[in-house]
Amino acid sequence: MKTGKCIVLSAPSGSGKTTIAKHLLAQENLNLAFSVSATSRPPRGQEVDGKDYYFLSEAAFKAKIAEGAFAEYEEVYPGMFYGTLKSELDRIWALGKNVVFDIDVVGGLNIKKQFPNNTLSIFIKPPSTEALAERLRQRGTDSTDKIAMRLDKANVEMARANEFDAVVVNDHLETAKSETEEYISNFLAG
Ligand code: 5GP
Q: What class does CATH assign to 6-189?
């Protein structure tokens, strides 16, 4: 299989990464398709198998690790595995499209390591930890404890921003969207 191009978007939770990813996927000229990850965690709410994630049992996930079926995988929380199947990348590249990843910092940097020449890695940065805390509080979906946990993870992740090809500061959503789009257009044209 011919290897196509990869666009990695990584960011701390609450940075607006998913909103930016959705905007990018709607730009037909960029010819992007979303990489559906596999996970061993159970579906949440309205999540659909094959659309939000490929939901696997822990045993099935481990069997795929043993087969070498993953381009990258990680035990994000104890007993909860997440990973990118090589078959998912082949599926998207066979359509002649470029792959977009909405994954965490460790996973994103692993993709860059796997495909160094055809990956653009972008870190979406909140303007400050205070702004991030404020956004997480306003979102109202997490308890105080959970917010503290996410902020700890965010600080660890922000320390690795300089390992990415590009950093976009999301202090104004429309500007962040167009900056990200420009990085991607330039990369795809190159
Ligand atoms: P959630 O369970 O909230 O959907 O995701 C939990 C975490 O797993 C998030 O930080 C998300 O970015 C990360 N994640 C989702 N898919 C993948 C993947 O394919 N690989 C890696 N390494 N992390 C992933």
A: alpha beta
